[in-house]
Structure formats: structure tokens, C-alpha cells
């Protein structure tokens, strides 16, 4: 379904709301959603630099595979 179709359906649903509290709740929910999406996906130069450093480090540093960590963790927590 196209984005314009989805937006149209969303507008229709909003127009059906009668209770002001429902409209306010929806506004808060949508505002939080948009805020989270914006914060999560903002690619600042600092973030990109940090990601490049981590990637470089992971390529030259020994990393412990997940299954090894899981096995060791079970040993740590088993009496």
C-alpha cells in the first residue's frame, strides 16, 4: 500500500475521534514516535566517527563469539 494511501486511512481514523482526550493521547503518542525516530536515526559526524572507530577496532581486536560468552556465563551463574 502506498504511503499516500496509508496517510489517507490514518486521517480518516483521526477524523472519527470525538473525545478530546483521545485526540490529545494520540497527539502525544505520535509526537513521541516521531521524536524517537528522529533521535535514533540522526547520523551526526560524531556518531559516524565513533562507528568507524568501533568497526576498525573490531577488525584488529579479538572478539569473543556469542556462543562462547553464553557458555561461560552459564558456568558463572551455576553454583
What's this entry about, in short?
With 79 residues, the chain is mostly helical. The chain has four helices and no strands.
Plain-language structure description:
The chain has 79 residues and is mostly helical. The protein has a domain at 3-39. The protein has helices at residues 3-16, 20-40, 45-60, 66-77. The model has no long low-confidence stretch (mean pLDDT 87). Helix content is 80%, strand content 0%. The radius of gyration is 23 Å and the shape is elongated.
What global shape is seen? elongated
**Structural class by secondary-structure content:** mainly alpha
The largest pleated sheet is described as:
none
Strand content: under 5%
Number of strands: 0
Features:
79 residues, mainly alpha
List strands and helices in order, with pairings.
Blueprint: H1 3-16, H2 20-40, H3 45-60, H4 66-77
